[in-house]
Design a protein that fits this description.
heterodimer, A: elongated, B: mainly alpha, Rna Polymerase Sigma Factor, Chain: A, 2 domains, elongated
């Protein structure tokens, strides 16, 4: 007990503060944790399915847009000189790596 | 990291190691932390809300939040304090939910103090119920948890001066309500 505390109130709190047995508290908590994990897993599956549908539906437009972009970039770099084709290769590699980075991050951190 | 520990080694492990394992997603390690800390958190919630079933529900919510956010805990040694903060927050959220149907502002400002019809034979739990929530919080953290004024201010995010005045005001009010214990040495009539 500290000096600034009232001894009677302190004693009442101390008498009340008996250890509580875990009983079914931990069991109920485990059930809630499992239930939450199950719901999260279901949401994750739904989110992946939704992403797949969206990506399938938008694939033609994305492919067209990307090819146009690469063509324009290649044409632009091509006009500068043939020795600059290597940077274009690196550009494609870097873009691919950047696209995969979220997946790599989730996999490496175990949050998948 | 994929570490799975046996129940025996978990029982004898120090808390910081259990927290590190739980941060890596080890559920048995977290369950061992729950087993060790449940009494303290349930006791804190019981003192704050004075309803055994509700207190256990809020304690479960506290541990569930801890499991969800344990990766954000930087220092394993700070687990106890962090868990206490989560418990305080879950109790405050419960008050806010109640406040949506009542007088939230008054509850938050600490002005809502019920007046008992009689103080005769009042036990500690009933007396705590008379205090305004923020005053009760400061009193419980000071007496039940043994925290200093500075620690309470940090945990509750209340100004230090407010904490001091809440504790002084709350202690004076409890002295009035529990006057019977000051005049006699009888055992308190704990009902719950």
């Amino acid at each position: 007990m500290r000096d600034d505390q009232d001894p009677v109130i302190w004693r009442l709190f101390a008498e009340q503060g008996q250890a509580l047995p875990p009983d079914d508290f931990t069991l109920k908590l485990s059930k809630r944790m499992h239930e939450r994990q199950r719901v999260r897993r279901a949401y994750r599956v739904l989110a992946i399915a939704a992403c797949l549908v969206v990506s399938i539906l938008s694939a033609p437009w994305v492919a067209q847009f990307t090819s146009t972009l690469i063509e324009l970039t290649a044409a632009g770099i091509g006009t500068i000189g043939p020795h600059l084709y290597w940077p274009l290769t690196w550009l494609v590699v870097a873009a691919t790596a950047a696209g995969c980075s979220p997946v790599i991050y989730l996999w490496r951190t175990g949050r998948w | 990291m994929n570490v799975r520990s046996s129940a025996d080694s978990l029982r004898s492990a120090v808390e910081a190691s259990l927290v590190a394992l739980a941060c890596a997603g080890d559920q048995p390690a977290f369950e061992e932390l729950v087993r060790r800390r449940q009494s303290s958190i349930r006791g804190l919630q019981r003192s704050l809300c004075r309803d055994t079933a509700l207190a256990d529900d809020l304690a479960q919510e506290t541990f569930l939040q801890a499991w969800i956010h344990i990766r954000s805990l930087r220092a394993p040694n700070a687990f106890a304090g962090w868990l206490r903060k989560l418990a305080i927050n879950s109790w405050r959220q419960h008050l806010r939910r109640q406040g949506a149907f009542g007088r939230l502002a008054e509850v938050e400002e600490g002005y809502l103090v019920s007046t008992p019809a009689t103080t005769e034979g009042m036990d500690l739990n009933s007396a705590l119920g008379v205090l305004a929530p923020s005053v009760r919080l400061c009193i419980v953290l000071s007496y039940h948890e043994g925290m200093s004024h500075g620690e309470i201010a940090a945990a509750t995010q209340l100004p230090l001066g407010t904490v001091k005045s809440h504790i002084a005001r709350g202690t004076a009010r409890l002295r009035e309500l529990l006057a019977a214990y000051y005049s006699s040495h009888e055992q308190p009539p704990y009902a719950r």
